Amino acid sequence: MMLRLMKMFGLAFVETTTERARRGPARPSWGFGFEWVVRFLRRDFAYVLDRPYPDVRAELDARPYSQKAVRRVKRTDDTLKGVPAVWFEPSGAASRGVVLYLHGGSYLFGSTRTHADLMARLALASGARVVGIDYRLAPEHRYPAQLEDALAAVGALVERGHAPGEIALAGDSAGGNLALVTQLALRDRGAQARCAALISPWLDLTASSASAIANDSTDYGTREGLLRQARDFAGATPLDDPRLSPLHARLEGLASLFIQVGDAERLHDEGQELARRAREAGVDVTLDVLRDMPHNGPVLADFHPEGARGTDALGAYLRARLSSSAAAATRPDAA
User: Fold this and answer.
1) Would you give the distance in Å from CA 250 to the centre of its chain?
2) Smallest Cα–Cα separation from 107: which of 76, 64, 150, 65?
3) Phi/psi at 106 (nearest 5 deg)?
4) pLDDT at 50 over 90
5) What is the pTM of this model?
6) Which of 116, 152, 306, 334 is the most exposed place for a label (fewest CB within 10 A)?
């Protein structure tokens, strides 16, 4: 595995050198190192696309990930109503508020290991305890298995004494999709989480937006690959079904949303459109557009200052929402 990764990094280095000599940086703020990382991720996505999903999961979990943020928090394994979970607790964490984090990976791969650094960063930036879950993955477990696991995790947190208003949902990519559809389901049950923070959310599984094609050269992954993965997740359910593509869902009555997208990523227009539709539906929306960033900017925080700013913005939003819910819960007149 390490030899293959080194080879891909080498090929990405040559491509980056050649392309920058020909036309300069792909985006104004992209230094050589950052563009090199993005080109590696493009090659990595193409490699992953043609391999069996169990092999991809095993390799991704075995890769060496940064532990800088993870070392700064307390990490604890847990189970939430049968769903494997991992807690990331920063020093001095607030006693009541908690972030339920749902990892990305096209609903096909990804785990609390692949996303540990991101969850630890979010815990440090928000000052809140973050718990990530290993929900079931497709195609072995197609929709609605992932939603069932997320709702079970919320139920477990409530049983442990967290009021729904003391829980924030968050997720990236497919995890952003899951955070939103979970919040929609909780709304329909009459017990929403305090808010939902969506990082580069995958909102329209038909990949119909203009940016799905226009931003191809500055993002990793491909539109055709996303469509293939969407079908492997959805099975017989149509890709434009609002339960899978919440961009088309009824948004009235939703609690506060934080939507973060990069202006260089293919999912940019989906995030913008969700913000527009949610505002029209009367939802409190914070839209954060990361300049020159491809998909999932906070994951690239070590390589570009805008990714680090995105992490800080997420943390500030969650801190403010959870702090206000905790203050309400401790008032003498709180119900």
Assistant:
1) 21
2) 150
3) 60, 20
4) no
5) 0.96
6) 334
